[in-house]
Amino acid sequence: MSTPATSPWAGSARAGTVALVAGAVTLAATAFTYVLSLSDVIDPPNWLRILGIVWMPLGFVATPILCAVARLGPGRQRAGVGLALALAGLVAFVVLLFVAG
Questions:
Q1: What is the dihedral of CA 37, 41, 47, 49, to 10 degrees?
Q2: How many Cβ atoms are within 10 Å of 85's Cβ, its own excluded?
Q3: What confidence score (pLDDT) does residue 38 get?
Q4: What is the DSSP code string of 37-73?
Q5: From residue 18, how far is each of 32, 49, 82, 97 by CA, in Å?
Q6: 81 class by beta-carbon count within 10 Å (0-12 exposed, 13-18 middle, 19+ buried)
Q7: pLDDT of residue 20
Q8: Is the pLDDT of residue 9 over 80?
Q9: What angle do CA 86, 91, 96 make, to 5 degrees?
Q10: How far apart (Å, rounded) are the C-alpha atoms in residues 71 and 21?
Q11: What is the pLDDT of residues 49-88, one digit of tens each?
């Protein structure tokens, strides 16, 4: 029995994909925060607010770390898109702070 050989770049591809997902989740959590902050009609329970918003800081932290892991391999482009999505979410959140604050 032999073990399958893994590519040294397999971690980069996986990190790039996870960074893309983390960036998209960050942007979705930011959109959820916008809806909660600017809408008078929607008033979900607190557990749902927490469940929706907790992904924003996790994505803000995870996406750059995953981009650093994926920067030298085939996952680089996906990680770059994920980082761009997370940065768009960050900019949108800062705008929300100025608008609603």
A1: -20
A2: 23
A3: 85
A4: HH-SS----HHHHHHHHTHHHHHHHHHHHHHHHHTTS
A5: 21, 24, 8, 28
A6: middle
A7: 95
A8: no
A9: 120
A10: 16
A11: 899 899 999 999 999 999 999 988 888 999 999 999 999 9
